[in-house]
Write a structure and sequence with these properties.
The complex is a heterotrimer. By secondary structure, chain A is mainly α. Helix content of chain A is 74%, strand content 1%. Chain A contains 18 helices and two strands. Chain A has a two-stranded antiparallel ribbon with strand order 1-2. The longest helix of chain A is centred in the C-terminal third of the chain and has 33 residues. Chain A starts with a helix and ends with a helix. Chain B folds into two domains: 205 residues, Periplasmic binding protein-like II (D-Maltodextrin-Binding Protein, domain 2, 3-Layer(aba) Sandwich), CATH 3.40.190.10; 96 residues, Periplasmic binding protein-like II (D-Maltodextrin-Binding Protein, domain 2). Helices cover 40% and strands 18% of the residues of chain B. The N terminus of chain B is likely disordered. Helix content of chain C is 61%, strand content 10%. The chains are: A mainly alpha, B alpha/beta, C alpha+beta. At the A-C interface, α2, α3, α12, α13 and α16 of A face α1, α3, α4, α13 and α14 of C.
């Protein structure tokens, strides 16, 4: 066998014995050139699009590049900025005056929040990150859920300050509700227990919170410097309104979604009407309602600050959107899950709590995150009712004699800040969506 | 089933009773302010020279000084003021609903605001009027030559109605370009999207002062409206109205009498002039009649200076805005400021 | 059941509580609940009005102007957002690296920055980047009109020629409608033919021909016969033989009543040439014209020579005499060009910057969201479908039209509906560029001037609610019609 082989090899000497060394592909078929041919100039229309795109990019960069890069960072006022510019570039050239940002960035971010207390909002934001972790990441340690539960009270305490006993006393109401729900169910029956769990805390908040907190504060005056709502502004305000709106609207939204899915006629219709009315009217109209009309609907003499009224309206607004997101999650669950829960003999609340909602909410998280992004962007509308969000602050800054006449710099700064925040949120939500998708397949 | 309906109804009744009992009525505004320890004062969302916060978050301006003076008179602390920025749309509701105690926001005193909207204007701290600004190279010398012009105008104010009236009464046409804020109006006007910018003459002067080349723009001589701007309070609480009114009058009278923030402490020791003595509380008991103490006016003047000092500091000829006193001079100097006697 | 009863009691109680508070608060403030303010004089001017409106009109009328403006920008916005979104969505999937990246930048940039900022920015960019009307002036102007001196792009808006209907317009419209019917019939015929025989008729070319040719022929025929007819100009209180210029020296900025309307436009163009700004009073019949002359509504009248003689004889209370100058009667359909006059361009149609900026901003912003929806929709169609269609020998545009798009549409339409709703609601941000939508008129200036915030806000909310429900309703019907029919 081996002989024949070697013999034939001998006779077929025209067949090459060893392979030629691999040659490089021709210059047009490798590296950057190939990449460009494939990705930029694969056909004539493609080439035209490439050239047009390049021109657009060049046009935009040539238009704003020198203005932005040549900007002046160190000046006390617009007049000074202009003087420096004339000195540097001669008359006639326009450059940005970023000095307004270096002078006022802290107001755009924190509003009138006392400068030595900036650690409080920053700490709150960090805590927020910790608090949402167990909700968003499945493999986060479970004990972190405690942080999630107490976060709203801690956040309130950190941002507004004052006595520690106020938020603590309010939190007790929730513990009360939980205790009633857990321990009286056997005695009263589930319906009565649920009702009691709603009514007793409400009565407690209405009548007892004030005195209890006052009494405790009298016993042990623990607290930090109080900061008024009117001192919160800029991005801090946008975050507070957006964050509070989403956190508070989650439970309401879930209830509304359940109401809309429910077979009970009155509850179903009321939920539908509420959701559609809220969603059918623009947020700006609701904000004007908050600022102009809410006082009409409340008992005469009631008065609380505009920020709280706006938060209430934003919460109601967001809850309608959350309700629709959660409804989508509920609808996406296979029918068998509901039936399985029924067949185990679980009652409505038990099946919702143990089987349906955990799954439905998990599916809804990307939707909830994008609702949050939308809400966060929409907080810019509060400028129309006189709250000092970043855009409101840009107006205030322009109203000082130093910076009157400045226009683009402030908007660009605000836009970039919004972009960074929203883009990272949306990236995260997309990542989550991908993860959830694979989980289902 | 019946039991639970009963329980439910009981719960609902309990809640309703709870809400009903939560209704609470408040006393007079003075009492509220003193109990709160701070004055809630409505200002603009930023108007050069009249109200704006500086880099430290301290509000400055001509309207702001009114707030500080009242706070000094009532609470002995010119910084005990919560400034509430209000827009043209929300200002009246904020005042009517009690969110703010005093609105010092370049608001024009008109019949319907006073009578129909139920407010009480406590005086006039700035006599203004609506004017026009045009680029000089347009070659326009009078507002009557503006037929067919495009006019930038801030929405939500009386200026819209004045403008409509002015053009229709002179049988001219125009194209309104409504803008939301002064900053946008400046931007639009400088880019030439409108030929004319119209707003209160003080606003025009303040805007023009910030232009790169103020000399390239002229404010036309016509003033087409009367805009008496003043602070206001809610109808019905006369004690509080009196305090705001006489604090403003005290600032005006102080200028007339030569009392300044520099010499007020010295003059409070007693002077030859009985009017000054009454104003500063060394004679008579005017402060007590207001429900305050007798040093009230002295504190207000010490806090913000007299009317003239406040004017010069914020909007006067030596400030960035450079307004002359004009109508806002003392009556003795040919202006309209005329404080009633302190007696 | 129990829960329902309790819920009902709670809700009724809540409503009662709110209503009681409202009544109590209103009476305390001395206000009443009354829509009477709607019939009061508004007193302010609105620049863009689709229906007639002056500052003497009522607040209700101002609200109507605002409503129409809202609907206009919402409609235009939805249209353009769809186009932009589809283009960007498809291009994002493009193999061209740079185009794909550019589209990603567009989508992420617009989606992650508040709409309000974009509206303000686009409005400001447009005013900075386009020339002012006065740049068009002079012998060597910095800017000039485009498309044969008929369109002017300025920083106050884009001025385009406006159509004016003259004599014979009716015939023109009828011909046009008839050709549309013919196109429809032909397409049906061609479709049947194709089903029956497989022969494909040149539908596009025939349709195009039918669309243009008959109407054009009628237009040319009519123009050739009567367009150059000269109509006399009759002036109130003029002497025989006066020229137009002499008359207008005494009567500045005259008002014109004319039949047909093209004659009025021609006259006002002539007047503009001698530096006069005329206003046109719309008239429908010669009786209208006569009464307008008698009441002094207009001082110049243009009408056919025969009717002119009867008019001069019949008019009472004023002296009417023909001037030296005459005007063209005009074609059945004529375009009035914008002209530079006084401070600004006049004549033609002005698309204001506020409208364009709001329109662009809404479309670009919503388009970014639609692009994502379209991209997801196209990706949702399995690749096997495209390949199968290719295996059948279909060409790529047919694959797109007949296979991919119909399937992608089912995924695209439901989220698209909510984007349309969002755009409509977002149009209330018009406040930022001073576009006079319903929120700016009814919900803004009217409330501010009358102090009727409760009533005004209620009407405003109701309007948006009804609009939203209507859009959702219509789109849901459409969605049902393209949905996969399960049998």
């Amino acid at each position: 066998m081996s002989d024949t082989h070697s013999e034939s090899a001998l006779h077929t000497a025209y067949v090459r014995k060893e392979m030629l060394p691999e040659r490089d592909p021709p210059a047009s078929q490798k590296g950057a050139v190939l990449w460009m041919r494939e990705n930029l100039f694969s056909s004539i229309p493609n080439a035209i699009m490439t050239v047009v795109s390049l021109y657009v990019i060049y046009y935009i960069l040539a238009g704003i590049g020198p203005w932005m890069i040549g900007g002046i960072w160190d000046a006390e006022s617009l007049t000074e900025c202009r003087a420096i510019r004339d000195e540097l570039y001669g008359h006639g050239r326009e450059v940005a005056c970023w000095a307004v940002i270096t002078d006022r960035w802290h107001q755009l971010l924190f509003g009138f929040y006392p400068q030595d207390l900036y650690w409080r909002p920053i700490l709150t934001l960090a805590l927020f990150g910790v608090a949402v972790a167990p909700v968003l990441f499945e493999n986060a340690p479970r004990p972190l859920l405690i942080v999630t539960a107490i976060f709203p009270f801690v956040a309130y305490f950190l941002l507004w300050g004052g006595s520690v006993w106020g938020p603590a006393a309010v939190a007790v109401g929730f513990i009360l509700a939980w205790a009633i729900l857990t321990y009286t169910q056997d005695i009263l029956g589930s319906l009565a227990a649920t009702l009691a769990a709603i009514v007793v805390p409400l009565l407690y908040w209405l009548y007892l919170v004030g005195p209890v907190a006052g009494w405790l504060h009298g016993l042990a005056p623990i607290g930090i410097e109080a900061v008024g709502s009117d001192e919160i502004g800029g991005f801090l305000l946008a975050l507070v309104i957006g964050g509070t709106g989403i956190i508070l609207s989650l439970p309401i939204g879930i209830l509304l979604a359940l109401g809309r899915q429910s077979d009970l006629f009155i509850i179903n219709k009321c939920s539908v009407i509420f959701i559609e009315v809220i969603r059918g009217v623009p947020l700006i109209v609701w904000l004007f309602t908050a600022s102009l009309l809410l006082n009409y609907f409340l008992p005469p003499g009631t008065n609380f600050d505009l920020m709280l009224r706006v938060i209430i309206m934003v919460t109601l607004f967001a809850s309608a959107y959350i309700a629709e997101v959660v409804r989508g999650g509920l609808a996406a669950l296979p029918r068998g899950q509901y039936e399985g829960a029924d067949s185990l003999g679980l009652n409505y609340w038990q099946s919702m709590q143990l089987i349906v909602l955990p799954q439905a909410l998990k599916i809804s998280i990307p939707g909830i995150v994008s609702t949050f992004i939308g809400l966060f962007k929409d907080t810019t509308l509060v400028v129309f009712v006189g709250l000092s969000d970043p855009i409101g602050f840009s107006n205030l800054i322009r109203a000082t004699s130093e910076w009157n006449g400045i226009y683009w710099e402030l908007f660009i700064f605000i836009g970039i800040c919004f972009w960074i925040f929203c883009f990272s949120m949306s990236r995260y939500s997309q990542w989550l969506e991908r993860k959830l998708n694979t989980g289902h397949r | 089933m019946k039991k639970s309906v009963f329980l439910g109804t009981l719960a609902v009744t309990g809640l309703a009773a709870g809400f009903a009992a939560a209704d609470a009525h408040s006393g007079g505004t003075l009492g509220e302010v003193q109990a709160r320890g701070a004055l809630n004062c409505g200002v603009t969302t930023g108007l050069v020279g009249f109200a704006a916060p500086d880099a430290n978050g301290e509000w400055q301006g001509f309207d702001v000084d009114v707030c500080r003076a009242v706070a000094a008179a009532v609470l002995d602390d010119p910084s005990a003021v919560n400034f509430v920025p209000t827009t043209g749309q929300t200002r009246f509701t904020a005042l009517a609903s009690g969110e703010i105690d005093l609105l010092a926001r370049n608001t024009t005193w008109t019949f319907s605001r006073d009578v129909d909207l139920r407010f009480e204007f406590v005086g006039i701290n700035y006599y203004d009027g609506q004017g026009f600004m045009v680029p000089r190279d347009l070659g326009v010398a009078s507002a009557l030559e503006l037929d067919g012009a495009t006019v930038c105008i801030q929405t939500g104010t009386t200026t819209e109605l004045n403008l409509a009236d002015f053009f229709s009464s002179n049988n001219m046409s125009y194209e309104p370009v409504p803008v939301e804020t002064n900053a946008e109006a400046q931007q639009q006007y400088l880019a030439g999207a409108c030929d004319v910018y119209t707003t209160d003459a003080s606003g025009l002067a303040a805007t023009r002062a910030t232009f790169e080349d103020p000399a390239a723009h002229v404010v036309l001589p016509e003033i087409i409206s009367k805009e008496p701007l003043g602070p206001l309070v809610r109808h019905g609480d006369n004690e509080w109205g009196d305090i705001a009114r006489w604090t403003l009058n005290a600032l005006i009278a102080a200028e007339e009498l030569g009392v300044t923030s520099a010499n007020v402490a010295e003059l409070a020791g007693g002077t030859e002039n009985p009017e000054i003595n009454r104003l500063l509380g060394t004679e008579g008991a005017l402060g007590e009649m207001l429900g305050l103490d007798n040093d009230w006016a002295q504190r207000a003047i010490a806090a913000v200076g007299n009317y003239g000092e406040s004017f010069e500091r914020n909007i006067g000829e030596n400030s960035a805005i450079g307004l002359s006193r004009g109508l806002n001079a003392q009556w003795t100097d040919g202006g309209l400021l005329y404080a009633p006697p302190f007696r | 059941m129990t829960i329902q009863v309790i819920a009902l009691i709670l809700i009724m109680g809540g409503i009662y509580w709110l209503a009681r508070n409202t009544v109590q608060n209103l009476s305390e403030l001395g206000k009443d609940f009354d829509f009477g303010f709607l019939s009061q004089r508004a007193g302010y001017d609105i620049n863009q009005r689709l229906v007639e409106y002056t500052n003497d009109s009522t607040h209700a009328r101002a609200a109507l102007v605002g409503i129409l403006n809202t609907l206009l920008v919402a409609f235009l916005g939805c249209l353009m957002a769809t186009i932009l979104g589809v283009i960007a969505g498809v291009l994002r999937l493009s193999k061209n690296w740079i185009v794909g990246r550019l589209m990603t930048v567009y989508v992420e940039g617009f989606r992650n920055v508040p709409l309000l900022l974009w509206i303000i920015a686009i409005f400001a960019v447009m005013t900075e980047a386009t020339p002012q009307p006065r740049d068009f002036r002079g012998d060597d102007p910095d800017a000039s009109m485009i498309l044969g001196e008929s369109v002017a792009i300025t920083n106050r808006g884009i001025f385009i020629p406006s159509p004016v209907w003259g004599d014979g317009a009716m015939l023109l419209v009828l011909t046009f409608v008839a050709s549309l019917v013919a196109i429809f019939l032909f397409r049906r015929f061609a479709h049947k033919r194709q089903e029956a025989t497989g022969e494909i008729l040149p539908v596009l070319w025939v349709s195009l021909g039918l669309f243009i040719v008959p109407t054009l022929l009628v237009y040319l025929a009519y123009s050739a016969t009567g367009a150059r007819d000269q109509f006399p100009v009759l002036a109130v209180g003029a002497q025989q033989g006066m020229t137009l210029e002499e008359f207008t020296d005494e009567n500045r900025n005259p008002a014109i009543c004319a039949l047909p309307r093209t004659a009025a436009v021609n006259l006002s163009t002539d007047l503009r040439a001698i530096g006069e700004r005329a206003s046109i009073v719309p008239v429908e019949t010669s009786a209208d014209l006569q009464s307008n002359i008698e009441s002094g509504e207009c001082v110049l009248a243009v009408i056919s020579p025969e009717a002119g003689e009867t008019l001069v004889a019949g008019v009472e209370g004023v002296a009417l005499a023909p001037l030296e100058d005459t005007v063209d009667r005009g074609r059945p359909l004529q375009f009035e060009r914008p002209q530079l006059a006084g401070f600004n361009f006049e004549g033609g149609l002005q698309l204001r910057n506020s409208l364009i900026a709001l329109w662009f901003a809404l479309s670009l912003y919503t388009g970014a969201f639609i692009a994502e929806i379209v991209r997801a929709g196209i990706l949702a169609v399995s690749h096997g479908q495209t390949e199968a269609a290719g295996a059948l020998g279909m060409r790529s545009n047919r694959i797109m039209n007949l296979v991919v798009l119909p399937q992608a549409l089912r995924v695209i339409i439901p989220p698209l509906i909510s984007q349309y709703l969002n755009l409509t609601k977002n149009s209330s941000l018009a406040i930022a560029v001073g576009y006079m939508d319903v929120r700016a008129t009814l919900g803004g200036i009217t409330i501010n001037q009358t102090g009727r915030e409760l009533e005004g806000m209620l009407l405003l909310g109701l309007f948006y609610l009804i609009t939203s429900l209507a859009i959702a309703g219509v789109m849901n019907i459409y969605n049902a019609s393209v949905k996969l029919k399960e049998r």
